[in-house]
Amino acid sequence: MAQQSNPNGAQQASADMPPAMAEVKSQSVDELLKEMNRMPLFMTQLDETDGEGGENLALEALKAMAYEGTRAEVAENFRQQGNECARAKQWVDAKEFYNKAIAALKGPQNHRDPDAAGPDVIEVELDEEEEAKKEKVIEEACYVNRALCNLEKKNYRSCILDCAATLRVNPSNIKAFYRSGTACLALDKLLEATWACGRGLAIDSNNAPLIALHTKIAARKAYIESVEKARRAREEKAASERATLNLALKSRNILTRMSGQPPDLEDAAIKLEDVMDPSSTLTFPVILLYPTHSQSDFIKAFSEREKLDQHLDYIFPLPWDEQHVYTIENVEAYMETAAGGLIKVGKKMSLGKVLGSGKTEIVDGLVRISVLPKDKAADWIEEFKKRRGKAISYNKS
């Protein structure tokens, strides 16, 4: 008997500490936590050994218990654990338990150990028909619940596949129709969503989730149809505008051509003042090139009724022209012809008349006019002729 002192110094008897408690008390905190982690109930991390490189018998026993019993019993155990996780919205864990349950149903049927003997061994004969019914119920539940997990994780394709598996087991499973319809709606597969929802409502016309889903599908259909209608209207309007523009160009004898590498003009384009009236005024994006100085100016909307000198009047003087050689009186303008030559552009001639001569062409929707000082023009023309081997024509005002 151990002795214990009281505050007055007197000795009083006390019971000896049990050996197990004495052993625990002698352990450090780290040693105690390590020991607890070997017990499945207290585990905070998986310990596959007994702490000395051997086998953790308690853990192995617990793992083996999960697979004890018939296929239905094993699968039901996993299903219940999956349901617990699903109620806690632990969708990944829940899905894993449903996976295990489905795998158990596809595995071999567990039978009594043939070597087992003794008074505690009870011979049980399986009713195969009854077991098959149980397995079918569990399989249906696992597939439809795994579909929920996939739906919540936005794995819509997997959700649809699980619903299909559910319906192969039970063609009247309302949840399968609802969840597959919801997944199809999320994927904008409206035909399939409508079918799933309709089949479900045919079984239960008062099912509130299916009624709500039907409303969502109808709203999505209406929205997509309105978007498609607006798209078609825009395309038809654009086609009509293109046709009107082509008619306007053709009636004015203006040639156009597209190359394989059009420039980026942003929103600049050949336009009619009234897009649906081919007789209304045309405007063109125009680039003025200064080839002898490698410079340029861009005019976004040059009217067919305007003349070149009207634009040169506000463009000149040029900020980089230190010699002041670019004046309206001291420059000449040229355009390339459709045949690859040059045509001289009269500064007082309207752009529409120049383009309507039938000699020039607009490439990639952009009119190009080269502007040169008169004393530089002849050399530039000669250089152009050497490169192209073409003749020069004149179109003066």
Automatic annotation (TrEMBL):
It comes from the Eukaryota. GO terms for biological process: protein folding. Gene3D superfamilies: Tetratricopeptide repeat domain. GO terms for molecular function: Hsp70 protein binding; Hsp90 protein binding. Residues 1-27 are annotated as: Disordered. Keywords: Repeat, TPR repeat. Residues 276-384 form the Cns1/TTC4 wheel domain. The keyword Repeat applies. It holds the Pfam family Wheel. Residues 1-14 have a biased composition (Polar residues). The keyword Repeat applies. SUPFAM superfamilies: TPR-like. Belongs to the TTC4 family. This is TPR repeat protein-like protein.
